[in-house]
Input
Amino acid sequence: MTQRIESSGYLLSSVLSPEQELIDIRISNGVIAEIASAGSLTPGASVTIESAGMQLLPGLVDLHTHLREPGREDAETIRTGSAAAALGGFTAVHAMANTDPVADTAGVVEQVVRLGREAGYCDVYAVGAVTQGLEGLALAELGAMAHSMAQVRVFSDDGKCVSDSLVMRRALEYVKQFDGVIAQHAQDPRLTEMAQMNEGIISAKLGLTGWPAVAEEAIIARDVLLAEHVGARLHICHVSTSGSVEIIRWAKARGINVTAEVTPHHLLLTDSLAETYNPIYKVNPPLRTNEDVLALRTALADGTIDIVATDHAPHPRESKECEWSEAANGMLGLENALSVIQESMIENGLSNWKTIAERMSYAPARIGRVDASSGHGQIIKVGVPANVILIDTKIRRKVSEMKSASKSSNNPYIDRTLPGQVLYTFLRGEMIVANGELVRPL
Ligand SMILES: [Zn+2]
Output
């Protein structure tokens, strides 16, 4: 058992800062109280964490999480999903709006935030729907959600594309008034009717209806032009193709206010996994080709893609243990995201921990306009709220279905060996995860 003596705080000794300096750091009264070179701080009344050589990072922020509550508590609850988030090193997550009821009113988004607070594992921010009922027709109560206690700044019909150009234009105009952002799930619905997997050589071989890259790219091209025309902020969810990267690169060079995310699974897995016919690999947008994966990695490294977001999408067994064509889209992501990033970005030399701190903490907090008092997405320095995590980057571990806080088990990494493990998560100085386990079990 780890002692929890909050008033005396914790001493993390000889940890590697995101900039790879060996430092001691003291957490006290919820904030970073002291930082000094390694070996120079004495424990005093603080509890010393055995942390020598561990990687210190700011608490991660996920801009794209499905927590399924309200409505599908058989798949996940805000409590289980936020616990999974903490185990994965997240101190804040944004809960997507495609719940039942849809989070398209102030009442629902406030409920989501409240349930997150009650659980207390990490901060839960609500994403508001763009359109009523995710139907793509009439705008939801965007202003009421923005001005509610939930202070919504990110709006998305994720799961569905805002495909009507005029609705998209009006949404961008509306959220501009309060510095909100529209997070678009870019998928032309007509081009992807009945789609089962990436359209390409493998879909042809398997005889499965394809989801062509152009269905994503055409929407992104339209939306960056709309964002430019309106002068509003646009965010692209789960970018999955090399062509999308090219369009975003062009839009940024032109000065358009667009940001983009990539999921861990699109950085590691490819459409060849569909040949297993195992629906655990069925996801939307689908796993793409190796060429796409390499383009996404390069784009994340050079900042064309701003952030990693998990698109954590729990599903009950019956939705996944069936034929491929019948199975639901989506995979778990919170608990293994950082390990997948270590494997796909750090270990092959494409990126470093300082950049990953930007892509998984500072930038997502900025895009979500997360309030400064929360401490999320802030550089680790004396006086800021202590949202920090410690990772053992040397460990290699086999991913186990048993060791998960999620209510669902559609985890594509089960039995895969991944590097790294989050051992400690602190939320404003409170130890949430210790030795890789929840301090307060579910
Ligand atoms: Zn989506």
In short: DSSP finds twelve helices and 19 strands in the chain. Residues 158-159, 185, 237-238 surround zinc ion (CB under 6 Å). The mean pLDDT is 97. The first strand starts at residue 10 and ends at 16.
